[in-house]
């Protein structure tokens, strides 16, 4: 955000299949864990491309007492068009009353950094350090700290911590922020966020909830922001059933976004 905004789930505790990843921490080195979860993440990224879902974003500017001073909200359906190409259909976008300005970097973070996926293809771009074992909602995890090795102009990266399920070997939570190269004297600030995943199809963990509650420190002022992103109603393209989390936004509230 430029003096203005950013983006930042509850993980469902599901029973694990009896025959899954018998190798545990005592059997795998950190590098082997990284290789295995990166391969699983690559599978997940490909699988998620075949799902439609609803994405809702709500961002609020808060004063020193926590009162809302400005708000931006948008609800979109991520679907497939006639040629099976990805489409984003905005179904709800009330008037934007934020004083902050949403930048292209913020949009990149919303699309690819906050629902962070670390695949075999991308793992070489990051310095990944093993921090030991941890638990997320009683789910055993391997925790890693992640930061980009080098940054390329125009690209956005994740910097922070990730938690990898020690059975399914997939990311179940991320906590950090989006980073990237900025132009000289460009005063963009980006909030720290956490994203949770849930096991949607019995095989892969999908991002379902992102939240941020942070203060952005610009050169001449500071602004506290609060943000929630929900990914709901995942449905495999061509299937007849879906899994829904949270309340859907009524279709009759649709209106065009205003700038």
Describe the protein in words:
By secondary structure, the chain is mainly beta. The protein has one domain. 11% of the residues lie in helices and 41% in strands. It contains two helices and ten strands, in the order αβββαβββββββ. The protein has a ten-stranded antiparallel beta sheet. A hairpin with a 5-residue loop joins strand 2 and strand 3. The longest helix has 19 residues, at 30-48. It is globular, with a radius of gyration of 19 Å.
What structural class results from the helix and strand content? mainly beta
- First and last CA, distance: 15 Å
- Give unreliable regions as ranges: 4-23, 239-259
The ordered H/E elements are: HEEEHEEEEEEE
Beta strand count:
10
Shape by Cα distribution: globular
What is the averaged pLDDT score? 86
Provide the gyration radius in Å. 19 Å
Overall tally of structural domains = 1
In terms of DSSP E residues, the strand content is 35-45%
Q: What is the number of helical segments per DSSP (H or I, 4+ residues)?
A: 2
Q: Classify the helix fraction into a percent range.
A: 10-25%
Question: Biggest β-sheet, characterized?
Answer: 10 strands, antiparallel
Q: Can you list the strand order of the major beta sheet?
A: 3-2-1-10-9-8-7-6-5-4
């Amino acid at each position: 955000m430029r003096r203005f905004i950013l983006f930042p789930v509850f993980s469902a505790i599901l029973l694990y299949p009896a025959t899954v990843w018998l190798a545990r921490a005592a059997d795998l080195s950190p590098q082997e864990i990284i290789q295995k979860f990166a391969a699983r993440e690559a599978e997940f990224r490909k699988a998620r491309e075949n799902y439609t879902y609803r994405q809702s974003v709500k961002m609020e500017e808060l004063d020193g007492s926590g009162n809302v001073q400005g708000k931006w909200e948008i609800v979109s359906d991520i679907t497939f068009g006639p040629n099976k190409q990805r489409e984003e259909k905005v179904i709800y976008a009330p008037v934007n009353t934020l004083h902050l300005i949403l930048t292209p970097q913020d949009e990149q973070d919303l699309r690819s950094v906050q629902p962070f996926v670390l695949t075999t293809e991308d793992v070489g771009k990051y310095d990944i350090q093993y921090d030991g074992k941890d638990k997320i909602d009683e789910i055993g995890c391997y925790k890693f700290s992640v930061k980009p090795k080098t940054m390329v102009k125009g690209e956005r990266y994740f910097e922070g911590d990730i938690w990898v399920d020690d059975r399914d070997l997939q990311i179940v939570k991320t906590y950090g922020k989006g980073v990237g190269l900025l132009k000289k004297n460009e005063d963009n600030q980006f909030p720290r966020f956490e994203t949770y995943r849930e096991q949607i199809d019995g095989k892969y963990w999908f991002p379902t909830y992102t939240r941020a509650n942070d203060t952005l420190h610009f050169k001449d002022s500071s602004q506290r922001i609060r943000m929630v992103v929900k990914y709901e109603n995942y449905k495999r393209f061509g299937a007849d059933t879906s899994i829904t989390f949270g309340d859907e936004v009524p279709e009759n509230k649709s209106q065009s976004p205003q700038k």
